[in-house]
């Protein structure tokens, strides 16, 4: 791909307009709490923006187009599953989480299962989030190298600088503002491309003539088992992710948290469809290209130069904004759960800078990891990420919400340990069945269900 002068100017202007508000927001940040939660004053738009800014990343755009190029409609599961997850989160989880007045998922689990649950929850969440960062990092590096013809090291340096500008100074406020602006750009460019590619393929009739119904036009093109895994891993993963829970904690009240979450869902669900359509179009017109280049190639070639430049900037912001938001989640857990709760550090300015530098350290670590897996499938890392998060957090968190006061501390802690151990060991014990999400959840239930039943039995005895 070779960018024109008009496209380059559009990219630069768009990036500057997105980054400057984030840097400006940093002037109001005085503590780690301000950095992570923005003073707990976010409205529906900022809550939704923080969520969208993270979930609509490289996987939701470039990664979805990549799989759409290879298999068609089944690539939609990423944004479809995410949206369903956010609806469930908004309806059932947002209010109890926001009303807790806490900052991290780990703290919520510690309140219910004791202090020893904190490090386990942080480990599970951090490992899962890291692989999601890897997915967006993979798309970012390929995009920058392909567009600007620079080395891998130069591309990585550009990523670190932009991530710093997006979230290093302003924290969740920067992430929220960038998220709102980013989704407007995606709708203005990727959606336009999706409509144009649909029409150029001849509409539904032309698509049916160009592609076999299976796998291209089926949501289950990867098989029912793989597709259901994609759906459940996304639903479970988003509910178990610090970054999205952090957006709820930042809301001014529980009703705002719930409304922001559902609003984000309604925006996120359709985002994958135009990316799928563009991927299929590029397969029909340019089957020789690398699948991961399908979406940026289309924006550069088939949209007007000025709009294509904005579209490329939107893709960059999607990937880098996702990295920023996810790294912010890890940074919050490191400063709050480790340095504040575990080591007893109380200096607010020190905790603030620990959060900031943790964001950069995590980003740098993801760069090193991606250098070893440059040709891997983007969505593979996202689904692995969601499964790891869910293994130690989802069901323990869910049982706290739905069976308040009925989950014994010992049962909750044992369920977390069992889930994480199964997630880590399952691929080695059963290499032909690498999907460890469902076995992990089953082992969670082995401890949680008897624990709740025992509590109900004891409560019944007391009433008698």
From TrEMBL:
<keyword id="KW-1133">Transmembrane helix</keyword>
<comment type="similarity">
    <text>Belongs to the sodium:solute symporter (SSF) (TC 2.A.21) family.</text>
</comment>
<dbReference type="InterPro" id="IPR038377">
    <property type="entry name" value="Na/Glc_symporter_sf"/>
</dbReference>
<dbReference type="Pfam" id="PF00474">
    <property type="entry name" value="SSF"/>
</dbReference>
<dbReference type="GO" id="GO:0022857">
    <property type="term" value="F:transmembrane transporter activity"/>
</dbReference>
<keyword id="KW-0813">Transport</keyword>
<dbReference type="GO" id="GO:0005886">
    <property type="term" value="C:plasma membrane"/>
</dbReference>
<dbReference type="InterPro" id="IPR001734">
    <property type="entry name" value="Na/solute_symporter"/>
</dbReference>
<keyword id="KW-0472">Membrane</keyword>
<keyword id="KW-0812">Transmembrane</keyword>
<dbReference type="InterPro" id="IPR050277">
    <property type="entry name" value="Sodium:Solute_Symporter"/>
</dbReference>
<protein>
    <submittedName>
        <fullName>Transporter SSS family</fullName>
    </submittedName>
</protein>
